[in-house]
TrEMBL record:
One Pfam family this sequence matches: Dynactin_p62
UniProt keyword Phosphoprotein, yes or no: yes
Family recorded in the similarity comment: Belongs to the dynactin subunit 4 family.
UniProt keywords, alphabetically: Acetylation, Coiled coil, Cytoplasm, Cytoskeleton, Isopeptide bond, Phosphoprotein, Ubl conjugation
Subunit and partners: Subunit of dynactin, a multiprotein complex part of a tripartite complex with dynein and a adapter, such as BICDL1, BICD2 or HOOK3. The dynactin complex is built around ACTR1A/ACTB filament and consists of an actin-related filament composed of a shoulder domain, a pointed end and a barbed end. Its length is defined by its flexible shoulder domain. The soulder is composed of 2 DCTN1 subunits, 4 DCTN2 and 2 DCTN3. The 4 DCNT2 (via N-terminus) bind the ACTR1A filament and act as molecular rulers to determine the length. The pointed end is important for binding dynein-dynactin cargo adapters.
Main location: cytoplasm
Membrane recorded as keyword: no
GO CC terms of this entry: dynactin complex; stress fiber
Organism domain of life: Eukaryota
Name of the molecule in the record: Dynactin subunit 4
Record lineage: Eukaryota, Fungi, Fungi incertae sedis, Zoopagomycota, Kickxellomycotina
């Protein structure tokens, strides 16, 4: 037993020929499967999840007559909401340095480093020096750091701009 379905029309379907409209309204319910095979079927009737409400014209619109534009962006890591202008200026990167580890997908942290103890290569030991400060991205789970790909940053903020200059 098939559950009954409700379909809606979009205002763009009013641009159909009157002959097509007459044919649509007089087809029987048994011929509904034949109707769905027609080439213009997707632009005429739609299920509710396929439709959008337009606030400007106060009408229901389908995907063929709308342009979807997000009103707000959010970072999946820190869940910080960002307006579209800020997202465009940061090239769709989070301004809070939310980067994922390429090895284990954990969140990378920005740490200061100037020298690494060469006797212990398995563990990354970070020492602080006030003269030549460099910053790297470090994974606290698998100990991956951005020096493996040659990335060191002159400051701990604005890594997105520095990251783009590497490309």
């Amino acid at each position: 037993m098939t559950l009954p379905a409700v379909f809606y029309t979009c205002s763009c379907s009013s641009q159909i020929n009157k002959d097509d409209h007459f044919q649509l309204s007089h087809e029987s319910k048994d011929d509904f499967s034949k109707l769905s095979l027609r080439a213009d079927f997707p632009t005429q009737i739609h299920a509710l999840p396929q439709l959008y409400y337009c606030k400007e014209c106060k009408e229901i619109k389908c995907t063929s007559c709308t342009n979807i534009e997000p009103q707000i962006y959010s970072c999946p890591t820190c869940l910080f909401d960002v307006p579209p202008t800020s997202a465009r200026s940061e090239n769709n990167f989070c301004g809070r340095n939310c980067y994922g580890c390429p090895v284990c997908n954990h969140i990378l942290v920005v740490v200061e480093t100037s020298s690494v103890d060469s006797s212990n290569k398995d563990q990354t030991i970070i020492t602080q020096s006030s003269t030549d400060r460099k910053y790297i991205l470090l994974c606290t789970v698998c100990s991956w750091d951005s020096r493996e790909i040659g990335w060191q940053f002159p400051k701990p903020t604005g890594l997105t701009g520095t990251h783009i200059s590497f490309h």
